[in-house]
Amino acid sequence: MTAPALQRDRPRIGARPAGLALATLLLLSVVMVLGVGSVSVEARDVVHVVARRLHLVDGASVGVLEDQIVWQLRLPRVLAAAAVGAVLALSGAVMQSLLTNELADPFLLGISSGAAFGAVLALTFGVTVMGTGLGVGVAAMLGAVVALGLVLALATSRSGALPPVRTILAGVAVAQLSGAGTSMLIMVFGSRDTARQVLAWTLGSFAGVRTRHAVVLVAVALLVVLCVLAAARTLDAFAFGETAARSVGVDVRRITWVLLVGSALAAAATVGVVGPIGFVGLVVPHLVRLVVGPGHRRLLPLAALTGALLMVWADTAARSLAPDREIPVGVVTAIVGAPVLIALLRRQARTS
Fold first, then answer.
1. Which stretches of 181-333 are assigned E, i.e. beta strand?
2. Separation of alpha carbons 38 and 264, rounded Å
3. 27: buried, middle or exposed (CB in 10 Å: 19+, 13-18, 0-12)?
4. Phi/psi of residue 132, nearest 5 degrees
5. Which Pfam families match (predicted)?
6. What is the C-alpha to C-alpha distance for residues 72 and 189, in angstroms, rounded to an integer?
C-alpha cells in the first residue's frame, strides 16, 4: 500500500465537526474512567475533586479517599495514557507519510526491540539510576535511541539521503538483532523471575505511572503536537513522492531527517516509561484517513485525539476487566488493532 493509493479516499465528514466530537468524547471519557476501578467514584464527585484541586471551587464536599483515588492514583495514569496514545498516533502518521508506506509505525524501525533489549539488560543485571527505580525506563529509552541510530547508520546513503525501502529493511534487521540479543540475555543470565518481568514489560503497562511520569509524557505530547502540526503542509507535499515535494521547494533530506528522528525519539520516550505498545501508531492514522481523507491538516489533530481516546479506554479495560490482576495494555490494543488491520488490508485488496 502506498501513499498515492490514499489519494482516492475523500473526506466523509468535515474535520471541524469530527474534531469537536472527538474532543468532547475524550473529555467525557476522562471523567468516566476516573471513576472506574476497584473503588467506584461517581462522575459528580470526580468533577468536584478536579475542580477543587484546580481551585475552581471551594469546600470539601468529597471525601479524602475519593480525592486521593481520583487525583493521586488515577488522574496521572489517565493523562499519561492520553499523551502516549496521541504521541504514538502522530508518530505513525508522520512515518507513514515520510516513508510512503502505510504499514510504517514507530516500531517498524526497531525502536520496540531496541527498548526491550535495554530493559532486559537493566532487569538482568539490576541496573539502577542513583538508587531509584528508574533504571529500566532509562535503559529502555537508551536502547531505543541506540537502535534508531543503527537504523539511520545502515540506511543513510553517501549523499545523506534516507531511502524509504532501505530504512524499513534496516529497521527490520535491527529489530531481529535486538530480539536475538534479548533472547540470549534471558537464556544465559536471566532467572525465571527476570523472564516474567521482561514479558510483563514488553506488553506495556501504565501501572507504574506516577505524577512525575505523567507530567513528562504530557509535555512530550504537547511538543510533538505543535511541531507536527507546523509541518502539516510539508507532509502533504510528501504524499506525492520526494520528487514532487522537491519540485515545490521542500528540502526533502533535511525535513525527512528532522521529522523521522523526532518522531522516533518521541516514541522512544513513551517506551521508556510504559513499555512498547503496538498497533496504535499503525491503525489510528488509517482509521482517521477513512473519515477525513489524507490531508495532514485534518489528519494530524484528529489522529492525536483518536489515539488519546483509544489509549484511555484500552488502559481502563486493562486495569478493570480482571478483578484480581491487570491485563497488559498491549494485549488490549492488539485485540482491538489486529481485526481492524485485517479489515483494512481486505478493504485495500478489494479496491486496488
1. none
2. 36
3. exposed
4. -95, 175
5. FecCD (PF01032)
6. 37
Give the whole-number percent of the chain exceeding pLDDT 70: 93
Is-contact 297 128, C-beta < 8 A?
Answer: no
- Picking from 214, 210, 204, the residue whose alpha carbon sits closest to that of residue 333 is 204
C-alpha cell at 335: 485485540
The whole-number pLDDT of residue 10 equals 55
Residue 129, SS3?
strand
Secondary structure of 7-36 in HEC code, one letter for each residue: CCCCCCCCHHHHHHHHHHHHHHHHHHHHCC
pLDDT reading at 80 higher than 80 = yes
Helix and strand totals (H; E) in the chain = 16, 0
Whether residue 284 is predicted with pLDDT greater than 80 in this model: the reply is: yes
Burial 66-105 (b: 16+ CB within 10 A, else e): bbebbbebbbbbbbbbbbbbbbbbbbbbbbbbbbbbbbbb
Whole-number Å distance between alpha carbons of 184 and 181? 5
Domains of the chain: 41-350 (1.10.3470.10)
What's the maximum distance between 2 C-alpha atoms anywhere in the chain? Answer: 67
Global pTM reads 0.87
Helices 211-230 and 75-98: angle between axes, nearest 10 degrees: 30
What CA–CA distance (Å, rounded) separates 215 from 222? 11
Q: What is the pLDDT of residues 138-175, one digit of tens each?
A: 887 788 888 888 988 898 887 777 777 888 888 889 98
Strand, helix or coil for residue 162: coil
Q: What is the distance between the alpha carbons of residues 109 and 170, in angstroms, rounded to a whole number? A: 7
Give 29-98 as a DSSP string: HHHHHHT-SSS---HHHHHHHHHHHTTSS-S--S-HHHHIIIIIIIHHHHHHHHHHHHHHHHHHHHHHHH
